[in-house]
Amino acid sequence: MTEPNESFEPKIVAFVCNWCTYTGADLAGTSRLQMAPNVRVVRLPCTGRIDPLFVIKAFERGADGVIVSGCHPADCHYTAGNYHARRRFAIFRDVLSFMGVDTGRITFSWVSASEGGKWRDVVNETTERVRQLGPFIDYQALSFASAAMPKGAELPS
Amino acid sequence: MSRIGVFVCHCGENIGRTVDCADVAQSLGELPGVVHAADYKYMCSDPGQQLVKQAIADKQLDGVVVAACSPRMHEKTFRRACSNQGMNPYLCEMANIREHCSWIHEDRTKATEKAIALGRAIIEKVKRNQPLQPIRIPIERRALVIGGGIAGIQAALDIADGGGEVVLVEREPSIGGHMSQLSETFPTLDCSQCILTPRMVEAYQHPRIKLMAYSEVDAVSGYIGNFNVKIRHKARSVDDTKCNGCGECQKVCPNKKIPSEFEQGLGRRTAIYVPFPQAVPNIPVIDRQNCALFKGRAKGLKKQACGKCAEVCGRQAVNFDQQDSFTSVKVGAIVVATGYQLYSIAQKQAHELLQGYGEYGYGTIPDVIDGLQFERLASASGPTGGKILRPSDGKEPKKIVFLSCIGSRDPAKGISYCSKICCMYVAKHTMLYRHKVHDGQAFVFYMDIRAAGKGYDEFARRAIEEEGAIYLRGRVSKLERASDVVKVYGTDTLSGENIVIDADLVVLATAMRPQPGIESLAQKLSVSYDAHGFINEAHPKLRPVETNTAGIFVAGACQAPRDIPDSVSMASGAATKVLGLFSNLELEREPTVAVVDEAGCAGCFHCERVCPYGAVEHKDIRDRKGTLIRVVANVNKGVCQGCGTCQATCPSKKVELQGFTDEQIYAAISAL
Fold first, then answer.
1. Which of B136, B176, B504, B520 has a C-alpha 20 to 30 A away from that of B61?
2. Which of B536, B592, B669 sits opposite A57 (nearest CB)?
3. What's the pLDDT at A1?
4. What ipTM, to 2 d.p.?
């Protein structure tokens, strides 16, 4: 684990739903709310579309943090997608934590289409939190470790 | 190999100020698969679109990426341009480097770097885009209008006059809404019922409008052009096919002391009642909570406790055993026009966001009333026959104090917005009072006078200059009962003095809020609403009568505080949208729906379990002899809304959401 470096700029990928969070982020833009430039948004129709593997892929490709954000409970444009997303992530967070990934690197939030200010806060808080955690190099370490094990070798007891 | 064209927009200074667009175009132009890259001042303009078309023709592009504003702004614009040039529109996408980049970052280096990353992601996605064809579905040319107030009635009439069928659902026993309770309307002082009742009757008698009063929407499913609505008809305990509205039942009802909702608690009604004489439909309803017979049944009495109304009914229309019934209708569009309620500012509040105003004594001091109650006093058909009388002792008040902005414009107590109509109706009330009590004096404590409509400012000035109302700029800290007056402790900021008035009657101009139950209705419809419960419009400036849910429109005060002329305009606007929808032979749907790869589908049907719309069907796969080999999932293209939950749930990823496939998204993530 590296020391937190104040000049380290984390790379954060955000998976957001088109109807609420993406529109809320648009509203933040229209309102000219300034925020940290570290977050890159991927637009999806619904958080229900989000496969936990997207999060893994993001980390694999060098993301230091991930945001998943959708409509508030009961307000999903597709009625239930955000509930499925919530359930998936409740379990997925435990899986990641079990694997040794600091769950501080992942943010799960509800941002509605009228909450530009809230999006700005989610972006800024996540950026700061991930900055303090430092670059995420564990993924490479994990994949190298398993690649280094020869076939048929016994697991350490 | 892909042939992608990239176009980076400066959007004047909007993007160009913080993002180096030329640099972005150049960097993106160097990516493999990109054969054309350019930047331009205004991509959405005609010449800008022409650049796209020209590049498609000259360089045989098979994909277009426009790095500019939000796709929610101009995706349609650029897709249309591509389509006009003969390229499938679904091969065109936008990278949002304005709302999500140039507008929110000041650092030019970082903003440019981010714009390049966002552009790269969309380029990689578009390389894997498939050309998609729109889906065509039939439209049901019938509209559901929820709410029978002035906005609902106007929308229903406009749609029906335009040739559409309408089902008008109203939860009260009669249509008319709050407008039927008003005495006179500003700025003309028109008698409210006189201008409303002809519309009510027209709606009732219109051949294409089916009126369902005393009914509520129970469940909604489906999608634009094809909604299925289940409507609950609450039990009136009166057979509406037999009742002829003679009114004999109400004359004999022994319980005459029930506070009338229509009279806002200032008058009384019977247990079997019609809310007001001009009610449409003019069919009574039994209030089962207060009817002696039903109270007896609830206690388990063997003998019928009463039954006088049934006995006297010449048509045998009273039916004590009537139950709620249900009908289902198919509609193509829905208009939400549920109107408002006034904020009841007594100390205890049902809504968690609101805190009451104990200092005004509403609910404890009988001579402190709200605007609708004053309307009932002033109304010729009201509980006092149109005389302004105090609720406490029935005497004529000689001094009335009106308080503006009670609850409104008060973020600390839960309502930050202005309720728009109160300044006007307070001025109106002072005039109605002066017309009826020539020696009465009206005082108004105000913060501002908001009289922005046509003829409105002249109206407000008339109240002050011609009708003698005394306007004091300041607020009131407390109302207190003192023998038979209400002491009003206020201040006049223009003279700098505190003022105490011994008022005979105080009228509070309380805030307008959406109707109770609006949140549950909005959730049934999947329309979004704000923290106050007002329905969200699709765009506050340019799409005021649509919601973000396709096929569902909104009109009137349920979207924001609004007066009658604006509610009527909005209702006509919503009706126009509905008729525009109905004027198409078929509806074209976006092809971003899920498609199953039948070769690989295992038939586990996890997708069916999670689909919010029930769009997944079972499809038999048979051999040439007709023997069943296996059953796979099949997505109904007309029902699927394109959320993608099925794909995320599928264990083998054999169902793909067109336009958002795993391949496209992984490519985009990798490129960020």
1. B136
2. B669
3. 46
4. 0.88
